Amino acid sequence: MFSKVLVANRGEIAIRVMRTLEEMGIASVAVYSELDRDALHVQRADEAYLLGGPTAAESYLNIPKIIEVIKESGAEAVHPGYGFLAENAAFARACEEAGIVFIGPPASAIDAMGSKTKARELMQAAGVPIVPGTTEAVDTLEDALRIARDEIGFPVAVKAASGGGGKGFRVALTEDKLQDAFEGASREGEKFFSDGTVYLERYLPDPRHVEVQILADRHGNVIHLGERDCSVQRRHQKLIEESPAPAVDAAMRAAIGKIGTDAARAVDYVGAGTIEGMLQDGEYFFLEMNTRVQVEHCVTEMTTGIDIVREGILAAAGEPLTVSQDDVELRGHAIECRINAEDASRKFSPAPGKIGNYREPSGPGVRVDSGVGPGGEVTPMYDPMVAKLIVWDTDREKATKRMLRALGEYEIEDLKTLIPFHQALLATDQWANAETCRDLVEDTDWLKTLAFPAPTLGDDDEDEKIEQAYTVEVSGRRFDVTVIGPPPVGGVAVAAGSANGAGAAPKKRGERKKSAGGGADELVSPLQGNMWKVLVKQGDTVEEGQLLCIIEAMKMENEITAHKAGVIETLSITEGEPIQSGAQIAIIKSPPAESAE
Length: 597
Fold this sequence. Notes:
- Helices cover about 30% and strands about 30% of the residues.
- The protein is an alpha+beta fold and about 600 residues long.
- Strands 13-12-9-10-11-14-21-19 form an eight-stranded antiparallel β-sheet. Strands 3-2-1-4-5 form a five-stranded parallel β-sheet. The protein has a four-stranded antiparallel β-sheet with strand order 26-33-31-28, with no helix packed on it.
- It is globular, with a radius of gyration of 25 Å.
- It starts with a strand and ends in an 8-residue tail after the last strand.
């Protein structure tokens, strides 16, 4: 068994892995970016090493630096968690070449399942049912249009060949929407996975997303731990997961379990992995394989009592699984809610920020996997997850009540999260009836009822506070900071960026809040992020609902559309530049009314 393992990740999954390492008597090594110097996973580890700058490319995706740190720390193995390098065959191969054990499948299995087109072809050859569609990449829009018309029909799903986690997944409900879907899926595939190739699948209108947890070792043992239902999603990314799946009985469980183990054997899999599939009208189709531990592995741990992370570490060390298929028994029901820093009322837009007071729920059957604490920060640089809240009880109805109780106990001050969304959805008849809840998640009017209260000013002294921006430099690094407080005594504050103290007068705090919403003609950014794409220019005439720009935030593309028809009088954005929440995007003037004859 290993004596020391480096965890090549951050946040809650890094802490989750470290807890199991500690229980196994294995020392843990953390890595971190400049933004994560004070993060909890850094404090939790036995030792920690700085990787580099704040971006993922400079730190958590920097393969040479991570290999260097593994050698420097003396770790014999690396656990990638999920995301970042978890499904990166090049990283697994680099570890193998450096004599470092990669806690996960061999690079060949990651390669085989990393390309969705390869995986579909492989599964089809192995007799595993796949969603009807192409098993080869579709190179051009013209080819996509022909295949969709003649072979698949509409609606059709366009997917990045190397995609995952909802990235590179677009749907064309009708023929006229295919170009947008094709180009959008290809663009996301290129951006997130350096692979812009796409393929087509029949789009199933209201399927249940059901996945199977598998475990495999180097001794030929492959088992499954039952299924999870992950049907509640936004933008094809999961929000709520549960185990067992409400629509799966014992016979179906055995059938899809066999699909999962057959798929794992087909690629000589080792460790923990997940076969994702779609269940529609009693038919189960292979969707993809995630060659890593899943975010939602916790609900399976709660219903089986098996530590999935531990089994993966044992398998990587060459040990056999500690359980057989006959040992696996699902007891009770578990539910997981992802507590993301998002505003559901604004179409789940990311809402990064600092956390004030923080208190996690507890009590019987409650588990919280988190990576933050009081005074922590959810940065726009990474994904928006704050924590995962998991509960267990003897059946689904009791588990739902326990989850509502736990959500009510969860206190996260000064940060917008999905807690109100989860509370509202779990109280609906749709959830009680075990529906997919897709209509609710896509109902913008219903989501708007979940809006957070508008900020209010305090006493009279609050009105006298001003907001002042400064640029400071610490150890050669520049920072933009905002100071909010009473007006300076004996002089006028200097506005950031002004020459010789001359500049714009500081804004009162109340004035800033009033202007953040924009006027009737002004369109402002609903979130903080990076201006990924600008699709219009000043002077253009636009229709209400027309796509103007795309903001990338927390690994998600957020499409910004025109709030009214008119002419773009002012365009205040630049492609590739950062943008703050509340910043002006454009001023759209209504066209002059035609004079009556």
